Structures
1.
Amino acid sequence: EINIAFCVRHPNLLQFIGATKVGNPMILTELMPTSLRKEMNNKHLTRPQILRISRDVASALNYLHLWKPEAILHRGVCSPNVLLEPSGHDQWKAKLSDYGSLDIQRKL
């Protein structure tokens, strides 16, 4: 998990900053103000915002699936794992998180 997070860099993936194995293992990432789940529960999302968030998530998944030498499968895409940050007037930028369920797809 940590090795994968260290290697991947994309504007729509949660930014990995560092990790420690001393004591309780911890992973440090950028801080995001909200998640898709919270915003869906608050019913604050407009159709253009939903389309932008969908495009951001698709871009992140495309990046992972085209990873070389072997594709990376997320296996845990859900609204709590889509984190949001403000991006301009009344817009959100989405970042995919939770690398705990990532899997390397071995080529046959």
2.
Amino acid sequence: YQRRVRGKLTINNIKNLYLLQRRTMSHSQGFVNFVNVSPTPFHAVDEASKRLVASGFSKISEREEWQLKPTGKYFFTRNQSTLIAFAIGAKYQPGNGFNIIGAHTDSPVLKVKPISLVKSANYLQVAIEPYGGGLWNTWFDRDLGLAGRVIIAENNVLHHKLVHINRPILRIPTLAIHLDRSVKEGFKFNDQTHLLPIIATALKGKLEQPDNSRHHTILLDLLAKEINCQPNQIQDFELCLTDTQPATIGGAVNEFIFAPRIDNLMSSYLSLEALISCSTETSLANDKSVRLIGLFDHEEVGSESTQGAASTLMEQTLKRITLSTPSSQLLTPNLYEVALRKSFLLSSDMAHGWHPNYTEKHEPNHKPEIHKGPVIKHNANQRYATNAVTAGLIRELARRNSIPVQDFCVRNDTLCGSTIGPILSAYGLKTLDLGNPQLSMHSIRETCGTDDTEHAFNLFKAFFEQITLLEEQLNID
């Protein structure tokens, strides 16, 4: 901000700087609060659902017919780990476009196996399976809890309950350097044998296990106590290990966010808040599009699942919206296809910030920095879906709203990751991949900047409110 006012710190400028910092910290602290109650995709979707209901959104079901109306605000979930929410403009007609922000709710974690009972050297351990491409070395010597969903039987009916044991009950211990001097040349470990957390010693744990037991009694007792049921009511569960250290704002001048799951709950949170902010009656009054967010599970493992972006979920959703508004009886053939070509998708996933200790890892002309705004991602081999048209539109949108943006392109000698962008763009959606810069991606603890939360929120808000008019000015197929 000081650069904007050229260093002239008048009373008004100081006041504006204070208000800017206050807004920035509001979104940053909001994310911290969100991620702390969202240890799994199930919890993230549950928290997002609560916020949507509190903001006047109506929950609908894929199992029922939809009756939608202009200015209506709706959401639904699939598998309790994927969420779609949308607001319909007051001037929407079937065949008009969809303005979509896509993100994902999952992150690399260690998941508890279906049969987790392991004993070794008089320790009780819990068998885990790595999910996604995590920096698993960062999970050693951390205070770990458990979170997920549990299926319980109650009065001959199955229910699910969310669980979050947010205290250190598990730990993956490293080997002392005295017993492995080779660690100086690099920390190497076997995912099957060395990545097993301990939950208790055999001396203190309960040794009596039923012959058909799949899990340690002590683990089932902990879960039962947490969700207020009997251990024998637990039929199954989906659990993952979680870091018990809460997310926080840090750095000498409080400019960083230190947190788990920044990739990609940051994008999920900011897109959610932007949609809520842009769903007021005033904001929707002159809009003829549908504003939509899709928060998908399973991005970290390829998206090919019932609730992943590679499923038919987005296609079915857009078709149903087109067919479920009051004027849908006026539909003519191909209006859905027409709508797709009027639509725009922002695929929002975190970006690799320029690392101070590994400066050589970035392409010389593409070094995204923290605090300098969202990063537009490019890849000639279509690992990202950005092209000149979509990049030009977003640059102009950012320029009109004084939002800084950056560019990222991977080095030619480095493999490029991917996102849900190329998957969803296959429907015929104009698509741009972008994300805020961060450090330590896929670590148990990641780092990003507080200023970028404000930049991304403002860009998402401008996208929902302005991209339709801007896109209509572009005369291209």
3.
Amino acid sequence: ISQLEKEVDEKRFQHENRIRVLKTQFLQEQRQFEHEAELRVHAMAEKADKRASQCLTEQTRRISAENRQLRIHLQELIENTNGLQFQKKQLEKQYQKLLQEHQFNLELRKLKGLPMSGSFDSNSDLNVTTTHVSTLPQITR
């Protein structure tokens, strides 16, 4: 019996040693695996940061190019508007001049005693609405 108890104690001791060695080995492998996982996560984060930076740079370039095109288009629209405003001023001046000439002709006919038939009254028959340029928004560069 004593011999068997010694064997059991010996086997128990060997078993405990093996368990301790396996546990130590497991913990060491676990730490190594965690370290490798951290390295992989760090590498993936760096790769993602680099890709995000590239995407932002690319998007910034696209937006800048689009802004340049929009700026050019806006400049063309401003120039066109300025041209139209100038043309409108010229037409308004021409209209005022024609109105004055018409008024002058009417007064001349009246002085000469000529009939007024076929003429039109500048306030009723002439269907032209004048607007003043000052009411239009001014666009400047």
4.
Amino acid sequence: MIKGVLVFNNTGKPRLTAFYEHLPIAEQQRVIRETFSVVSKRPNSLCNFVEDPSIWGDDCKIIYRHYATLYFVVFADDSESELAVLDLIQVFVESLDRCFENVCELDLIFHYEKAMYVLDEIIMGGMVLETNQQKIAQSLQAQGKIDGDRILSRARV
């Protein structure tokens, strides 16, 4: 099960957060700080999996990818495959790229609700719903037509 998804920039400012397990706000902030501290100090030559029980607990793995100025981090329990979660991060980033045409930090800041909608199409309640980018793009287009939103409706299928 997915416990949480974080996207933060190179300075540690969270740009998108989704926690699927209840954590008090102070605990969420601690998790974000400690995760950034651990992930940002790792050289690119190391793998993208971290097991640090002090951050979320014994049964939680941190899987992340660093793209340009953004870190995409997923917290998952032991039932999730690390490689599958890395693929899930790739699907999320490519879906954002389809929606925003080369997603950047400013897209996540100014269109937060659209980025969350993309994430909700992929993960809901900690369960992976969809990984097919074609179906995700179709869903985004349909939602954009309903809302009259030109950003979502132009998602490339």
